[in-house]
């Protein structure tokens, strides 16, 4: 009997693989040059962003083209708190995340009334509104296109922190987001979210307050993206609207689709892959948009479940075949 | 004692009268059937009771409390559960997750207790899982618990829907054509379950076209035609009601 589901053997294998990858990630700074480290930090920040989107897009099943707007809220939160109030990073980061959550909890009141194409446009409009505000509207405060320079983060002895600090900070955040996504998915609230994605009427009939849980999904998305934004600006030491325009929104969605929608591992793999890729082919920078298009087409054609989804599928098919040939041999 | 009281409910879809002055009383612990030709407003009435669609006027009381002004997501917590005419499972979720989703209104864990996995939340989750497995064993589908619900044969999907309605220990279940599309054997099993449900004290209201089933199960029958109630009574009264015979059962037909 071949079950297309997880059994205890599978679970054990997953635990071993995850622990192995985590160990490599922990030891990674020991044998990496600063360039490679910076690449890894970028990849991890991409993974946080994609994990955030996975809660709203993957679990709640609602499209969101505004994740870069959440990213900007976190980033500008940290930058403005430091620039005007001299608040240290360790305090400004959580404050910025809370700020991002509060803004999105208000905007979500309107956004969760939309579905499908309207929601895609609504979230995109929110993101572009954030972009326009920081680039033009509040130019005096945010520095407009010139951006804001941030001071480097200092250790206790006054020397600037190395790449390792941001690497471990981003890694810890990725692990925390994975853990939160996992425990959410296994809970009644996570189940309610996936039920909304599949059949809103049935979910409503069994007591799920649809707009409440969609708002919750969007807020969780914004909290994760806000952390990513805060870490990002402090790491590169500069913030400007160019990181939060139209294209970054699309890249986050692309990362999740390529990795595997609704899968935690898929979000991590897709996020790291899509964010590192342009840095690897920096020589062909002018065709990077084209590359994204090609990747999206190829993955939709050949990997409709995303990289991770297809790997799991291959594994299941393989195991089913094994089981069939074994039972035939008996 | 009457559990559900519907008082003169109206519902128009544009110019179409879906429900016109419909009143109904459901005795606690009874099985009632709702019959009528296609488009006579049976499913609309179900949707109005569960607030999936708003009604135009009229009042609905459940266990003495007025429920027609509550939002739809609070109805299950009052003790009303339902199944759908078109099977509406969460097709990609596992069978046990589908059944567990019926208990949503009976569980409390909020987002913070979930993200921090506090012991009370974990105990609640364990309790849901145990209760889910009880229901799944009761329905005789325990070997399918870890399958995606959409992969099940149709008859078993109907059973999962029933399980999802029963897990919250409701006072009343609304079954919308529960037997349609089932083979005689599956239908027999489900009819047994419906009788068992009633014997546990749960009030049942169901829609069905097969008169043999209706006559066998129902204590009371309500007949709708073009959104109006044209008859109400015991199976014997309905069987001999000339108006019912004319609009629904067909003229000069021997009824079993």
Task: Provide structural commentary.
With 330 residues, chain A is mainly α. Chain A has helices at 8-27, 34-59, 67-85, 89-111, 116-137, 139-142, 163-185, 188-198, 200-205, 210-236, 246-259, 264-280, 288-302, 306-329, and strands at residues 148-149, 238-239. Chain A has a two-stranded antiparallel ribbon. With 256 residues, chain B is an alpha/beta fold. Chain B has 9 helices and 10 strands. In chain B, α2 (95-101) crosses α4 (119-139), α2 (95-101) runs parallel beside α5 and α4 (119-139) packs across α5. The chains are: A mainly alpha (330), B alpha/beta (256). The interface between A and B is large, with 29 and 43 residues.
The assigned structural class of chain B equals alpha/beta
Largest sheet of chain A: 2 strands, antiparallel
> Between the first and last Cα atoms of chain B, what is the distance in angstroms?
31 Å
Largest interface comes to:
A-B, 29 and 43 residues
Q: List the strand order in the largest sheet of chain B.
A: 6-7-8-3-9-10
Topology, number of strands of chain B: 10
How would the blueprint of this fold be written?
The complex is a heterodimer of chains A (330) and B (256).
Chain A: H1 8-27, H2 34-59, H3 67-85, H4 89-111, H5 116-137, H6 139-142, E1 148-149, H7 163-185, H8 188-198, H9 200-205, H10 210-236, E2 238-239, H11 246-259, H12 264-280, H13 288-302, H14 306-329
Antiparallel strand pairs in A: 1-2
Chain B: E1 2-13, E2 16-27, E3 31-35, H1 42-49, E4 57-62, E5 65-66, E6 80-82, H2 95-101, H3 111-115, H4 119-139, H5 154-166, E7 172-176, H6 184-199, E8 203-207, H7 211-217, E9 220-225, E10 228-233, H8 235-239, H9 242-249
Parallel strand pairs in B: 3-8, 3-9, 6-7, 7-8
Antiparallel strand pairs in B: 1-2, 1-4, 4-5, 9-10
Helix pairs in contact in B: 2-4, 2-5, 4-5
């Amino acid at each position: 009997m071949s079950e297309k589901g997880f059994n205890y053997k599978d679970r054990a294998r997953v635990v071993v693989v995850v622990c192995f990858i985590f160990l490599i990630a922990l030891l990674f700074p020991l044998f990496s040059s600063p360039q490679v480290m910076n690449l890894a930090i970028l990849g991890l920040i991409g993974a946080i962003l994609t994990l955030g989107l996975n809660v709203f897009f993957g679990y709640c099943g609602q499209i969101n083209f505004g994740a870069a707007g959440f990213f900007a809220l976190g980033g500008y939160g940290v930058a403005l708190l430091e620039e005007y109030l001299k608040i240290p990073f360790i305090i400004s980061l959580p404050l910025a995340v809370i700020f991002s959550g509060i803004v999105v909890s208000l905007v979500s009141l309107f956004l969760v009334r939309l579905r499908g194409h309207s929601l895609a446009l609504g979230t995109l409009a929110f993101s572009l509104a954030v972009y326009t505000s920081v680039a033009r509207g509040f130019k005096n405060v945010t520095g407009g296109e010139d951006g804001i320079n941030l001071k480097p983060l200092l250790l206790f002895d006054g020397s600037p922190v190395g790449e390792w600090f941001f690497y471990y900070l981003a890694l810890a955040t990725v692990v925390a987001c994975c853990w939160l996504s996992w425990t959410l998915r296994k809970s009644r609230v996570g189940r309610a979210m996936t039920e909304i994605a599949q059949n809103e009427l049935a979910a409503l009939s069994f007591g799920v307050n649809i707009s409440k849980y969609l708002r919750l999904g969007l807020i969780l998305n914004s909290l994760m993206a806000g952390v990513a934004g805060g870490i990002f600006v402090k790491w590169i030491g500069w913030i400007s609207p160019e990181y939060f325009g139209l294209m970054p929104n699309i890249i986050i969605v692309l990362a999740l689709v390529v990795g595997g929608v609704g899968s935690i591992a898929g979000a991590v793999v897709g996020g790291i892959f899509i964010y590192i890729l342009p840095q690897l082919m920096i020589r062909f920078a002018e065709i990077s948009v084209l590359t994204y298009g090609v990747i999206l087409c190829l993955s939709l054609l050949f990997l409709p479940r995303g990289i991770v989804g297809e790997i799991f599928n291959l594994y299941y098919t393989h195991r089913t075949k094994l089981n069939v040939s074994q039972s035939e041999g008996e | 004692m009457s559990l559900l009281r519907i008082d003169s409910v109206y519902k128009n879809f544009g110019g179409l009268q879906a429900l016109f002055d419909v009143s109904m009383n459901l005795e606690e612990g009874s099985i009632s059937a709702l019959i009528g030709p296609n488009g006579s407003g049976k499913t609309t009435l179900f949707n109005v009771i569960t607030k999936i669609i708003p009604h135009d006027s009229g009042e609905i009381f459940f266990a003495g409390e007025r429920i027609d002004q509550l939002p739809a997501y609070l109805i299950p917590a009052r003790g009303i559960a339902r199944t759908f005419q078109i099977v509406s499972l969460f097709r990609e979720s596992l069978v046990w997750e589908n059944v567990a989703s019926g208990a949503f209104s009976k569980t409390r864990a909020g987002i913070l207790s979930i993200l921090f996995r506090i012991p009370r939340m974990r105990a609640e989750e364990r309790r849901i899982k145990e209760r889910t497995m009880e229901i799944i064993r009761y329905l005789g589908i325990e070997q399918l618990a870890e399958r995606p619900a959409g992969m099940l044969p149709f008859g078993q999907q109907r059973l999962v829907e029933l399980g999802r309605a029963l897990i919250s220990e409701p006072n009343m279940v609304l079954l919308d054509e529960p037997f349609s599309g089932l083979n005689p054997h599956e239908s027999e099993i489900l009819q047994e379950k419906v009788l068992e449900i009633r014997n546990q004290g749960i009030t049942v209201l169901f829609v069905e076209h097969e008169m043999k089933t209706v006559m066998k199960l129902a204590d009371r029958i309500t007949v709708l035609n073009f959104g109006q109630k044209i008859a109400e009574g015991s199976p014997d009264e309905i069987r001999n009601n000339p108006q019912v015979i004319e609009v629904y059962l067909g003229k000069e037909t021997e009824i079993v």
